[in-house]
């Protein structure tokens, strides 16, 4: 469903019930429909997924870095260390990557913690993402990610560029992945 945040008519029952926009009303209608379907299901062994996602269009997650060489000073370079806008969450980055790679936004997403880092698995191994920015992405972490997860190597793997322990760690991670999971498409943002 696609719904613009169109304001409710102030004379409508929806507005009087506290709904400011048609999108808010639509979300509650979907929840109520899902609950009704769930309540009508009499088979105790059958699990019905009544969840849904609400996505909003926003600007890019990436910081704008359109500077001419003579318009930037050496002190400004420290502001360019992380290329992601400060107010963006890991989920924001995940959905941008999914859109960039053409991955269906309705696929199931699991969040796991590996070595203290949040790792997202989209449709098991269609896309694996870690946006940790604590400079803790190392070869050992990637080996754990690929080998110890009990899964086949991911089709696509994405990291946050600022999450690598060092430039050499990033290069080494790429080489480790070529050996352990050569079919994996790797990207860092």
Question: Helices and strands in order, then pairings?
Answer:
Elements: H1 13-16, H2 22-40, H3 90-101, E1 109-114, E2 117-122, E3 127-130, H4 139-147, E4 156-159, H5 167-180, E5 185-188
Parallel strand pairs: 3-4, 4-5
Antiparallel strand pairs: 1-2, 2-3
Helix pairs in contact: 4-5
Question: Which features would summarize this protein structure in a list?
Answer:
single chain, 189 residues, alpha/beta, 2 domains, five-stranded mixed β-sheet, 5 helices, 5 strands, flat
Describe this structure in words.
The protein is 31% helix and 13% strand. The protein is an alpha/beta fold. The protein has a 5-stranded mixed β-sheet with strand order 1-2-3-4-5, with helices on both faces. Strand 1 and strand 2 (117-122) form a beta hairpin. Helix 4 packs parallel to helix 5 (167-180).
Which oligomeric form is depicted? single chain
Q: Which residues sit in consecutive blocks of at least 5 with pLDDT less than 50?
A: none
What percent strand? 5-15%
Form type: flat
Average per-residue pLDDT, rounded, comes to 84
Elements, N to C (H/E): HHHEEEHEHE
* Strand numbers in spatial order across the main sheet: 1-2-3-4-5
What structural class do you assign from the helix and strand content?
alpha/beta
What is the total number of structural domains?
A: 2
- The value of Rg in angstroms is 21 Å
Q: Number of helical runs?
A: 5
Number of strands: 5
Largest sheet: 5 strands, mixed
Helix content: 25-40%
- Terminal CA distance: 29 Å
């Amino acid at each position: 469903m696609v719904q613009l945040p169109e304001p409710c008519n102030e004379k409508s029952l929806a507005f009087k019930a506290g709904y400011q926009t048609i999108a808010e009303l639509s979300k509650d209608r979907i929840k109520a429909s899902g609950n009704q379907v769930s309540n009508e299901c009499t088979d105790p062994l059958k699990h019905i997924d009544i969840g849904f996602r609400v996505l909003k269009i926003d600007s890019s997650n990436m910081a704008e870095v359109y500077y001419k060489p003579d318009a930037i000073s050496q002190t400004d370079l420290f502001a360019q260390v992380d290329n992601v806008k400060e107010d963006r969450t890991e989920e924001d980055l995940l959905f941008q990557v999914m859109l960039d790679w053409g991955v269906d936004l309705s696929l199931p997403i699991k969040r796991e913690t590996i070595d203290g880092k949040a790792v997202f698995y989209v449709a098991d191994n269609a896309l694996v993402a870690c946006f940790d920015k604590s400079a803790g992405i190392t070869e050992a972490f990637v080996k754990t990610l690929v080998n110890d997860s009990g899964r086949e190597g991911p089709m696509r793997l994405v990291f946050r560029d600022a999450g690598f322990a060092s430039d050499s760690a990033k290069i080494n991670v790429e080489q480790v992945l070529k050996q352990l999971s050569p079919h994996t498409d790797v990207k860092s943002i």
